[in-house]
Design goal:
By secondary structure, the protein is of the alpha/beta class. The chain has 3 domains: about 200 residues, FAD/NAD(P)-binding domain; about 80 residues, no CATH class; about 100 residues, Polyamine Oxidase, Chain A, domain 2, CATH 3.90.660.20. The chain is about 35% helix and about 25% strand. It is built from 13 helices and 20 strands. The strands form 5 sheets. It has a 7-stranded mixed β-sheet, sandwiched between helices. The chain has a 5-stranded parallel β-sheet with strand order 10-2-1-14-20, covered by helices on one side. A hairpin with a 2-residue loop joins strand 3 and strand 4. Helix 2 packs across helix 13 and helix 5 runs antiparallel to helix 6. The protein is globular and about 65 Å long. It starts with 12 loop residues before the first strand and ends with a helix. The relative contact order is 0.19.
């Protein structure tokens, strides 16, 4: 721990922009190193993309969330906070909707029974997952598309039936540009989170991710830091190539250094008056998809599956996630929670629909899969939107990623677009936040 770990104003102060898990983890790690941190979050609550809302007497994530059993960074942090008993591990059931029918795909035996593929292709599909987990050097995949790699690994029919609908369902017109590295990491994560019988096992936090975010914020406050919500950042105060403060509607928050965690287009807007145009343009080079998520609270369950991949090009959502087949419905006063998620450009008609129309659109398509679903089942419906939900990981993506250090000597960058070869998620957001905090604290120590 830094020799600067002294009380009061003599400690250096860092402003952390963004109160998602990356920003909160950065503030926590800074506090551990004797640096006082102030988190500035524009929304009314912390959590970022893992933010929550009231449902059934508790808090529920706006966008579906879980952890894999191999998510070590979040588990280590939870242990440090003394909260390990709040983590629950449960087996989950996964399936696929294909050709107007449901198929379970939770275990190796389910895979062998997957009748849309001839038996030799079922074996190829299973071997593909095993071969993906054995990839030692992911850099060899960087200049290949996921489509080409998956065709080579499993054959054309496996690609057409299983993988192509999922790629197109998630990335739409950009599906053919997605890098093999991105898909390889997805296979590796899911394949590494299984029990002895081959079933997928996932983790959740008692009280939801909001409870963990609050525990982390409490730890930051206990270190002498602050977590402030409802505080949008309007600009940076810069003198001689260094940030001296963060401008908010109410005040300029003085800072010895700044950690910035929002999406790169937002960062570009903040830095445009202060950084070279070439650098600002490079931040805008990485593309993002938005996400629209419809959350239904039902008095009936739709199925016994937690995660249903939809391999139907006519269905507008990439998956149907019945959260209460993972976290019990009793947590939500008996309500069954269903997420329907779609990644899309902001030009998409669904993104621009009013909430009521988006819900009606969703139910019309959902009833094609579940014809028994009636309006009487629906206790509540919610629509959540995230403008920058998914960076598009294209070929050669590593060459596009900005460094942690920026042209401003004391401003550090930590965003989900820099998490590579892994994809976004709270586990890697925590890793990213703690890493940038260590770099920031070391720079402050060197400035003494």
């Amino acid at each position: 721990m830094s020799s600067r770990a002294t009380a009061g104003a003599s400690r250096p102060h860092v402003a952390v922009i963004g109160g998602g898990f990356c920003g909160l983890a950065a503030a926590y790690e800074l506090g551990r190193r004797g640096v006082r941190a102030t988190v500035l979050e524009r929304d009314a609550e912390i959590g970022g993309l893992a933010g929550s809302f009231p449902a059934g007497g508790t808090r529920l994530e706006k966008f579906y969330h879980h952890w894999f059993t191999n998510d070590v960074h979040v588990m280590n942090l939870i242990a440090e906070l003394g909260q390990s008993t709040e983590v629950v591990l449960r087996p989950t059931r996964t399936g696929t909707y294909y050709a107007h029918d449901f198929f379970k795909l939770s275990t190796p035996l389910d895979l062998l029974r997957f009748s849309p593929l001839p038996f030799p292709d079922r074996l190829r599909l299973g071997l593909l997952a095993l071969r993906a987990r054995r990839v030692k050097d992911w850099r060899a995949l960087e200049d290949r598309t996921a489509a080409d790699w998956l065709r080579e690994m499993g054959g054309e029919r496996v690609y057409r039936v299983v993988w192509e609908p999922l790629l197109r369902g998630k990335f739409g017109a950009l599906a053919e540009e997605v890098a093999a590295v991105w898909f390889w990491n997805k296979l590796k994560l899911r394949g590494g989170s299984r029990g002895r019988g081959g079933e997928e096992r996932l983790a959740y936090y008692k009280g939801g991710f909001a409870a963990l975010a609050e525990a982390l914020a409490d730890a930051v406050r206990g270190q002498g830091g602050q977590v402030r919500t409802g505080v949008p950042v309007q600009g940076l105060q810069v003198e001689d190539g260094k940030v001296t403060g963060v401008i908010t509607p109410e005040e300029t928050v003085p800072a010895d250094a700044v950690v910035v965690t929002p999406a790169l287009p937002i960062v570009a807007d903040l830095l445009e008056p202060h950084a070279p145009s070439e650098y600002v343009d490079s931040l805008r080079r990485i593309r993002y998809l938005a996400n629209l998520c419809v959350v239904l609270e039902l008095d009936h369950s739709l199925s016994d599956l937690y995660w249903l991949n939809v391999n139907d090009p006519g269905f507008p959502f990439v998956g149907v996630i019945e959260h209460t087949n993972f976290e019990p419905a009793s947590t939500y006063a008996g309500r069954h929670i269903v997420y329907l998620s779609r990644y899309l450009p902001e030009s998409d008609a669904l993104w621009r629909m009013p909430d009521e129309e988006a819900v009606a659109f969703t139910l019309k398509h959902l009833r094609r899969m579940f014809p028994d679903l009636t309006g009487d089942w629906i206790l509540a419906a919610h629509v959540w939107r995230a403008q920058y939900a998914q960076p598009v990981v294209e070929r050669g993506y590593r060459r596009l990623i900005p460094a942690t250090r920026t042209p401003l000597a004391n401003l550090f960058l930590a965003t989900m677009a820099q998490i590579y070869p892994e994809d976004r998620g709270t586990n890697y957001a925590i890793r990213q936040g703690r890493e940038v905090a260590r770099a920031c604290a070391a720079t402050l120590d060197g400035a003494v």
